[in-house]
Structure formats: C-alpha cells, structure tokens
Amino acid sequence: MTPVPEEVPCLLMRGGTSKGAYFLAGDLPAEPALRDELLLRIMGSPDERQIDGLGGAHPLTSKVAVVSPSADPRADVDYLFLQVAVDQPEVSDRQNCGNILAGIGPFAVERRLVAAGEEETSVRIRMVNTGDHATATFPTPGGRVRYTGNAEISGVPGTAAPVVIEFPPSANPLLPTGHVRDEIDGVPVTCVDNGMPTVLIEAASLKITGYESPAELEADEELTGRLRTIRLEAGRLMGLGDVTNATVPKLSLLAPPRDGGAVTTRTFIPVRCHTSIGVLGAASVAAGLRIDGSVGAGLAELDAGGDRVRIEHPTGFLDIESSLDATPDGLPRARRTAVVRTARKIFDGTVFPRSAETAPLPPRTQGGQR
C-alpha cells in the first residue's frame, strides 16, 4: 500500500471561472480511496466553510486536477478531474471540468511534463474521466508560461493571457437518448452530450423567467424539487444510471438573450446554480441550440454566417465556436468545438493536509478512477 504523505507539492491555479489544486499523480497515493481521503483533508472537507483547507466553500473553488504523462499516443498528458464536495465527505470523478482544463497545459509546462516552445506551446490532453481529448495552446515567450495578457472572460476580474482550447469530435452520441426531444414530468427537454451530459430546459416551461439570480433560483424549493425529479429521470434516459449522488447531468435553463448573445442560461451543477457556466456545459448548450427541433432552438438567436455562439450567464457571457455535421445515418454530431479561456498561477508550494486523526468522516468516492 502506498504511504500517505504528510505534505504534498501543489500548484493552486485559477482555471477559467473555477479555482483548484493541481497535483502530479506521482505525488499522491495511487489507490483511489487513499488519494481521495487525503484530498478531503487537503481541501478541508466536509465543512461548509472548508476553513481548515484549501477549498473556497463553493463547488467552483473545491476542485482538483491530477496530471501525469500520458501513454496515449494522441496525448502528452493525462488529466483526471476530481470534484471535492464542500460539506460532504465525497470525491467524484464522474465528470470533466472544462474550466480547470484551462490550467492543465500551463501546469504541464510548469512541472516540465511538456517542453515549452519559444513563442507558444500546444499541449495535447487526455481527459481521463471520459477518455475525450483536447488541445490547449497558450503563450510561452522565451520558453516560460506567460499568464498576463489582454484576454477577458466574464466572471474573472481583469485580463490574462488567452488559452485556446480545441476539442475534437467526441465518439459519444450528441443525443444520448436518441431523441431530439424527450418529455420528463410533463416538461420538454433535450439531452445533449458534447463533452458534458447536459439537459436543456426552457425556463418558461417551469414557470420562471430564466433571468432570476442563482440565489433566487436556489431558494425556490418547488423549482429545485422539480429539477431533481427531471435530473434523476434524465440520467436514466441518458444511460448514466442512478445519478442521485452524481454531479451529472447538469441542467441548463434557457431563456431568450438579453445582451446580444444567443441565449440566456441558468445552469444547475447539479444542486447549486452556477454563477456563470462551465466550458463543457456551454459546449453542450451551443451544440444543442444548433439541432433542429431541440429545446431552445426556437428561442436562440444564432449567427447564420458563423460558428460563434455567445452563451449568456448570470455574470456575463462565454463564447463557444460550435458547428455540427451528421453521422452516416443522419444523426447530428459535433464537428468543431473551441473556446478561449484564461488561467493564472496563484501559488506554487507545499500543502499540509489536516491530520487524519481529526478528519470527521471517511470519504465516499463517487465513480472510481477510470
């Protein structure tokens, strides 16, 4: 059995609109149960404030990336994303995170897993959670990662260097239920998977506007109960099984755009309402809007002459480059998906986990490393 370290090298980074602890796989225990128990102590869970760890008391700031060299000839590094619950002793690997993904390329260069180019560097990434791939390209003048720049993304103050992330077409069906529309609990939905299993729901069908704040939506007990029912059934229809304790699928409530975008969104991840929107969730929304007859297609305002889809969210917008074609049997599939994000190194050093003797509960791992 691998010894559990009492101190661990760690790079804390902001990736997109999330923040997380980035680790080399070799610095953590190889056994998932031991690794996850250690990460709970590092992040300070379970505790709603995460006062005794690195976590920021919200799912968007309680995230972990585990990175290693890849044996896949199509990738330079493997990236395992782990969502550490805030107030529960749970660690889940049942989803990807496209925001934390934005920091993987820079981290790989910082840890010398990939040699930096003289002007820019492209890092090919295998997302272990699903087996999907992405390529991140970012500036490295003089062979060092540059974090400063003029790229601006909603939900992050200031500007930073751009990280361009390109996603090849996924082998998974874009419509995992096989239908453009399904009906759950009397509500029309479209279930899409373009990197993140996502359920598209028109906000008006739930008797809300879709412009409410995340706090208002979370406080609406009737709404959240209805969404839970929809999510559980959607998980079954999408082939995900019982998703009671899972973080997927996400639910994205759609309304007509207000600020020049294609659509307004309010996304549940899955219980809390996202203050913006995840990259892969936005990729699934953008692809879903382009499917004829889908939920949201009729209310979205799409640019007929280009691939860009601007997804409005509670703190601004996210631009996705999205285009579709068809499979040989005529089903829609993603042809191209790309996004510009930013990332920043916050600190690089050693983290000291809370003592195992003071940890309140053993962890419950959701999924298991794949």
What brief labels describe this structure?
OMA_tautomer-like, 17 strands, 15% helix, 370 residues, PrpF-like, alpha+beta, 6 helices, 4-oxalomesaconate tautomerase, eight-stranded mixed barrel
Short description:
The protein has 370 residues and is α+β, with helices and mostly antiparallel strands.
How many strands, what sense, and barrel or not for the largest sheet? 8 strands, mixed, barrel
Spans with pLDDT under 50 lasting ≥5 residues?
none
End-to-end Cα distance: 19 Å
Overall 3D shape: globular
Beta-strand content estimate: 25-35%
Query: Count the helices. How many?
Result: 6
N to C succession of SSEs: EEHEEEHHEEEEEEHHEEHEEEE
Return the structural class. alpha+beta
Helicity level: 10-25%
Radius of gyration: 20 Å
Average pLDDT confidence is 94
Number of strands: 17
Task: Determine the oligomeric state from the structure.
Answer: single chain
Physical arrangement of strands within the biggest beta sheet: 1-2-3-4-6-7-8-16
Protein name: 4-oxalomesaconate tautomerase
Keywords: Isomerase
Pfam family, one: PrpF
Family: Belongs to the PrpF family.
Structure description:
48% of the residues are buried. It contains 6 helices and 17 strands. The model has no long low-confidence stretch (mean pLDDT 94). It has helices at residues 32-43, 98-101, 104-110, 214-219, 221-237, 279-289, and strands at 8-15, 18-24, 63-69, 77-84, 90-92, 120-127, 132-139, 162-167, 182-184, 187-193, 197-202, 250-255, 263-268, 308-313, 316-326, 332-351, 364-366. The longest helix has 17 residues, at 221-237. The chain has an 8-stranded mixed barrel. The protein is globular and about 55 Å long. Helix content is 15%, strand content 33%. The chain has 370 residues and is an alpha+beta fold. Pfam families: PrpF. This is 4-oxalomesaconate tautomerase. Keywords: Isomerase. Belongs to the PrpF family.
